[in-house]
């Protein structure tokens, strides 16, 4: 929620999201509901991209070069924290567009920026820590049926399967895994 607030998205924006895990899918759902003209997603995980397609993503690929938008995207969102994805995303922002660093990168992660391009094309780079003033609003969207929690939860496992759930999560299979007592 907070991440999308920071974007100050405008109607008709073309959006590119790196990462179709839970947070990327949340960004997809918010972008669709706030008037985006198109929402494309990049992810290396085919199963996660399939979920994005089920949700109605405009285009999906393992590499943004496979998507047809040579002029770039108005909003580019990194929901991975991965240096390569961040670097690629920074280069895909359209003139007067915005890049949002939403995925949690390691504190030692570094990428390069092109200061002249930022100046000349009036590109905005911003970040968001997802937890600021967003839990209650997100809960209201789920409770009101605006967002479907089943989209974000791939598995519900009993407590005695917690170690297997950790292994599954670490392998990148599924989305959110709920452990129930």
UniProtKB/TrEMBL annotation:
Presence of the UniProt keyword Transmembrane helix in the record: no
UniProt keyword list: Oxidoreductase
GO molecular function list: oxidoreductase activity
Keyword Oxidoreductase included in the entry's annotation: yes
Reported cofactor(s): Zn(2+)
Gene3D superfamilies: Medium-chain alcohol dehydrogenases, catalytic domain (3.90.180.10), NAD(P)-binding Rossmann-like Domain (3.40.50.720)
Family matches, as InterPro entries: ADH-like_C (IPR013149), NAD(P)-bd_dom_sf (IPR036291), Zn_alcohol_dh (IPR050129)
Residue ranges occupied by any Alcohol dehydrogenase-like C-terminal domain in the UniProt entry: 23-142
Domain of life of the source: Bacteria
Protein name: Alcohol dehydrogenase-like C-terminal domain-containing protein
């Amino acid at each position: 929620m907070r991440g999308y607030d920071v974007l100050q998205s405008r109607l008709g924006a073309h959006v590119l999201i790196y990462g179709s895990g839970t947070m990327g899918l949340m960004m997809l759902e918010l972008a669709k509901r706030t008037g985006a003209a198109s929402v494309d997603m990049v992810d290396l995980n085919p199963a996660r991209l399939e979920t994005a397609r089920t949700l109605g993503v405009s285009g999906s690929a393992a590499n943004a070069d496979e998507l047809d938008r040579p002029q770039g995207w108005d909003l580019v969102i990194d929901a991975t924290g991965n240096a390569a994805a961040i670097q690629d995303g920074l280069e895909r922002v359209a003139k007067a567009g915005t890049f949002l660093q939403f995925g949690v990168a390691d504190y030692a992660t570094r990428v390069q920026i092109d200061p002249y391009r930022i100046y000349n094309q009036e590109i905005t780079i911003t970040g968001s820590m997802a937890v600021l003033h967003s839990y209650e609003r997100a809960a209201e969207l789920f409770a009101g049926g605006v967002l479907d929690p089943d989209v974000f939860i791939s598995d519900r496992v009993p407590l005695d399967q917690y170690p297997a759930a950790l292994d599954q999560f670490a392998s990148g299979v599924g989305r959110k895994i709920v452990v129930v007592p």
